[in-house]
Every structure is written in C-alpha cells, then in structure tokens.
Amino acid sequence: MSKQISFRPSLKTALKTSTVAGLAALMLATGIPAQVVQSFAEPVKVTGPQVASFGDVVDAVSPAVVSVRVQSDIKPASDDSGSTFNFNFGGRGFDELPDDHPLKRFFREFGGPDGGPDGPRADRGPHRFGDRDHDGKRKGHLRPTSQGSGFIISEDGYIVTNNHVVDDGAAFTVIMNDGTELDAKLVGKDSRTDLAVLKIDNKENRKFTYVSFADDSKVRVGDWVVAVGNPFGLGGTVTAGIISARGRDIGSGPYDDYLQIDAAVNRGNSGGPAFNLDGQVVGINTAIFSPSGGNVGIAFAIPASVAKDVVADLMKDGKVERGWLGVQIQPVTKDIAESLGLAEAQGALVVEPQAGSPGEKAGIKKGDVITALDGDPIKDPRDLAKRVAMITPGTETEFTLWRNGKSETVKVEIAKLQADQQASAEPDQATPDEPQSSEQELADLGIAVSPSDDGNGVTVAAVDPDSDASDRGLKEGDRITSVNNKEVKSAEDITKVIDQARRDGRSRALFQVDTDDGSRFVALPIDQG
C-alpha cells in the first residue's frame, strides 16, 4: 500500500516570501488564521495622543544635580597601634573567605587583615585610618557616614541640600553627573527647615551649570514634577510624578509646609530637587512616608518659597534669623469659634503669652484670637508661626485680635528667636495633693469641681464618662482656670459665666484647662438644661 505524503511549507519559508499575497497564501496553507496573517502583514501603529517625554528637562537640569558624600570625624575608643590582626572565621582565615563575604568587604574597606593600619593597605591614608600625634597615638579618622543629593544654584558652585544629610559632617565631597569629584565646604545649615548650603572648592574658577527656584505659588495639585537624585547611592536617577497635595504638616517642626509628591523618592534622594517642566526647582525632597523604608508613592518636599529665603540667609552669613512673638497657641475649631462669637473657625487662639516675650509686653492675653498680621488674615497656628518667623527682628508689626466679642489691634516689636527659645511656653501648674471636700456638681457639663488649694481656678473632681467633657478629654485632676476668658474660682463662678453666655445666644462656652501636658482651650456645649 502506498502512503500519501502531504507537504506544508514551514512558517520560516513563509516569512521569506517577498510579497504580502505570497505570505498570506503560505500562512493559510499552514492553517494559521487570517487575522494572524493580517497582523504580520501590517505593523502596529498607535494614532492616539502621546505623553510628552521628560528627556528635554532631564538633559537640561542633570549637570546641576549632584551627589553629596559626607564623612565624619570618628574618634577611636582606644589606641590599638601596637596590636596585630589575627582573625579566624569558622576555621578559615581572612584570605579563605569568599570575595563577596560581608566580613571580607568590611575589613577590606575599613581595616583588618591586609587592610589594617599597619598592613599593606595602610597607604589608603588618613581619610580611612586617621593620623597619629607626636606620641604615635591615633587621633581619629574620617569615615563615610551619609550620602545624599543636592543641586547647584549659582555658577560659582553654591549647592543646596538637606541639613540631615550634612549634619555632623567634617568633610564633604560633591560628585557631578559626569563622575567628577570635587571638595566642598559647609556654608551654613538650618535644622528647623532641614536645609543646608555647601560651596564647591572652585580653585579653577569653573563656571557650573545651575538651576533656579520656581514661583511655587503657581504650583497646582496635579502638576507634573521630575525628581532627580542619588537613591541608595546609585548616582543620577530620574523619576516623575505629580504633586499630590500642598501644605502638608508631617510633625517635623513648627514651620511644616511640605509639598506631597508621588514621584519615586528613596533613601539618598534627600536634598535632591523636584523640577517643574520648565526646569525650575519647585521643592527639595526631604522625607518619605514608608512602612518598609522604600518608596510607596508618598514623598515630601520643602517648597521653593521656603527654601529660597532660608538659602539666601545661609549664603549671606551662614545662619538664619527668625522673628519671635512668644505666645503659646492652638487652633480655633468650629466649637471654639462659636463659643467666642467668631464668624469663621480660623486664626490662632492664645493659650498663654510667655513671660517677658514681645507678645506679653504688647498686651496680648490668654484667650485672645490672633486673626490677622499687618491686615492679612491668619489661617491657623502654623500660618502664624511661619509668618512671624519671616519677620526681621526689631520690626514693629500690627496684630489684629478678637477679644471679648470684638476686634482690636496691638502693635508688637518682634524680637529675635534664640536657640533656647520656644514658639510657645507652658504655664506653671499646680495640682492639689488630695481631692477637696467642697466638691460641687455641674450636671449640665458632666463634671464635678472643687476649689483649688492655691485659689487659682477649680479642680475637676469627677467626669461623667458619657459626657461631652469626657469626649473632649477632660480628666479628674485637671484644672479649669477660666471660662469665656473670665477667671473662675468656684462652681458658682462657672455657672454665672455660662448663664451669661446663654443669654447672649451662645451654645458653647470656652474652658481653659491646665493639665500635666500644658494648657489648652476646650469648647463645651451649654445649651442643654
């Protein structure tokens, strides 16, 4: 019996066919569907709108972005100049360890067999192992302690970075995007805004490519940003994203006003710039939110408007001078605004003026609400702190206050904020040794009070756990010193003030409460009963 032999051209043969028709015929002969033939016959083309490349921005700004390597002066705990190295790791000598063994790398870089201060690698010099004094004792040595990013802002080599990158550094090296390493010196740093300025040791009078700060008042949530920096010591790296939010307070200090961005920012990006699409710096990357330590899409940058003023001061004389008002303040909530008769919940409520401060000397009192500075409205305590800090010490400034249901103004000569001065002061407090016997219940408020031993205010003797007072944090042992800015020394005083507030149509009263953690104001409902 004869066998019928059928022949099918291979796909390889089909692909060699010079015409589309021939290709289609051969592929159909192989049993490949027609739609697949079509896909081979015509290459894919995307005709929709495309996202523009960031390449032009990156090409322009990259020469101005640098890596910053910091070395610190590490003092030895004792003098080991007479000792010899004799290490054994599980029966193997140092030379027998694998090349990628972490201990071998450690001793190769920081001293040890064949790399110790008296060994063949001692020629690494004082930047590794330190100098010795005339007695032959070790003086200490410079050791790499941190690495971050920065950017050049002038053609003669001034560099902006983060304070936490350079803090405690003794020597600084700037690495350009082409790999060139240049020494730099610290010009000045400011811990309150986490900014620092370095200056390249420009002996050759080289002119550097530099970048400028943007007007971040025009920056909008949703705008593109390009972050350039040195994550994990990898060198120049570019990521892109958008501005996710403005005015973020992350609890790092009284002047928090961060831009939140979702561009990938990691360790080592600190001090690096975030650019807009015009190649201007809109922010300096300084912090990330991350449970793991890596990028999760939440990063924070110091706004250009903050950095620009601080950097100018640091370049001028290496320090930043800030104004000081000297009052303890807290936010004005809706309840507090209603209790004081304010139309809007904004401004800063004065809890206590600091003794001898400019605010106290000008007559600012506890219970005042600072609503404006030189006629410009104050949003909240953070807004007030930032704006006072920007005032030149010695400047007379007008503050608008809300006091006793009406607006008035005071003039304050702003002083200089010293290193040991705080933005607020906690008033002296006293807590009675034991509960007083003259306890009186204020059922409408859900508390019981008794006169304080020193006659200053009343002590909270009990709090109903189901009351508004409990919900707002009042506890047994707290001291109430005033209600609606009127001093109280008994339950009767409190009742009189509350009755008057009700007659004035108020539904809440403002209680000043002293606790172990300081003084604060609490608005309690008074419209029941």
Could you explain how this protein is built, in words?
- The protein has 529 residues and is of the alpha+beta class.
- The protein has four domains: 11-41, no CATH class; 57-77 and 146-320, Beta Barrel (Thrombin, subunit H), CATH 2.40.10.120; 323-416, Pdz3 Domain (Roll), CATH 2.30.42.10; 440-525, Roll (Pdz3 Domain).
- The protein is 19% helix and 31% strand.
- It is built from 13 helices and 28 strands.
- The strands form five sheets. Strands 22, 23, 24, 25, 26, 27 and 28 form a seven-stranded antiparallel sheet that branches.
- Strand 3 and strand 4 form a beta hairpin.
- Helix 2 (20-29) packs antiparallel against helix 3.
- It is elongated.
- The termini are far apart.
- Mean pLDDT is 78; it is low at 1-18, 78-97, 101-139 and 422-437.
Radius of gyration: 34 Å
Helix content: 10-25%
Total strand segments: 28
Show unreliable segments: 1-18, 78-97, 101-139, 422-437
The total domain count is 4
Q: How much strand?
A: 25-35%
CATH class type of the largest domain: Mainly Beta
Mean pLDDT: 78
Please identify the structural class as seen in this structure. alpha+beta
Based on Cα principal axes, name the global outline.
elongated
- CATH fold field value of the largest domain: Thrombin, subunit H
Q: Tell me the distance between the termini.
A: 112 Å
Biggest β-sheet description: 7 strands, antiparallel
